[in-house]
Q: What sequence folds into this?
């Protein structure tokens, strides 16, 4: 199959882009919009994956061994179906909701001057309890700088969040990244991935990072990923209910 430099599937709102145009080196990303009522749905609007030199960096868990729960109303309690285990935000403590009304908005694909990008708004993938007025995500592969950069431009309803807190409900706002291989926190603002071949750089003014190993039961996922998946949690600074935050994967 041809390795195209970039492509956008309009009907499914899936974007793919790679560096070096098929030479098997550099960065590759894929990202999706759509809605949370698609066939075999996971609650993952705005999810993306990143590979470097054909090796996984940030991943999608995929499917696990099917059980009766996979086909029940408890489906979205499963790890691989929950947005808490996809590369998407958790807003005011809430994950995305399943259903057709929970969807991406204002989705666009860009390609110019060696840059491929997908831009989409995520706020409609969450219930009103998230108190999110805007959450625009932009995922960019820049072939000149040789990086994949993500920009999160968000605005939260700080008054509603403060009311929740006065009622004793205090929740984090987080950006989740599912990493293959153990991340190494090199210093504040920098995490090494893929055995040190890739750096995750993030803006420490707005974000703090923690890492946890993903505990999987025996099944397809655990075998496929060699029981070597970690969850990076980038927590947003509560002092900024409105901000433009960037982080990137760079060599």
A:
């Amino acid at each position: 199959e041809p390795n195209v430099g970039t492509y956008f599937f309009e009907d499914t709102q899936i974007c793919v882009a790679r560096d070096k145009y098929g030479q098997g080196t550099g960065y590759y990303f894929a990202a999706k919009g759509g809605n949370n009522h698609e066939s075999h749905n996971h609650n993952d609007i705005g999810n993306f994956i990143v590979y470097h030199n054909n090796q996984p960096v940030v991943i999608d868990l995929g499917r696990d061994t099917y059980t009766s729960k996979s086909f029940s109303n408890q489906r979205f309690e499963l790890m691989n179906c929950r947005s808490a285990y996809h590369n998407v935000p958790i807003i005011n403590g809430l994950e995305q909701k399943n259903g057709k009304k929970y969807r991406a908005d204002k989705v666009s694909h860009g390609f110019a001057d060696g840059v491929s990008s997908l831009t989409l708004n995520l706020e409609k993938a969450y219930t009103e309890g998230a108190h999110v007025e805007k959450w625009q995500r932009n995922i960019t592969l820049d072939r000149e700088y040789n990086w994949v950069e993500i920009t999160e431009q968000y605005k939260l309803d700080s008054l509603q969040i403060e009311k929740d807190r006065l009622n004793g409900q205090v929740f984090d706002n987080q950006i989740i990244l599912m990493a293959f291989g153990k991340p190494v926190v090199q210093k504040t603002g920098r995490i090494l991935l893929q055995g040190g071949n890739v750096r995750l750089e993030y803006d420490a003014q707005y974000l703090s990072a923690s890492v946890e190993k993903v505990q999987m039961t025996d099944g397809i996922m655990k075998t496929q990923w060699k029981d070597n998946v970690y969850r990076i949690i980038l927590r947003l600074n509560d002092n900024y209910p409105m901000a433009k935050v960037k982080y990137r994967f760079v060599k």
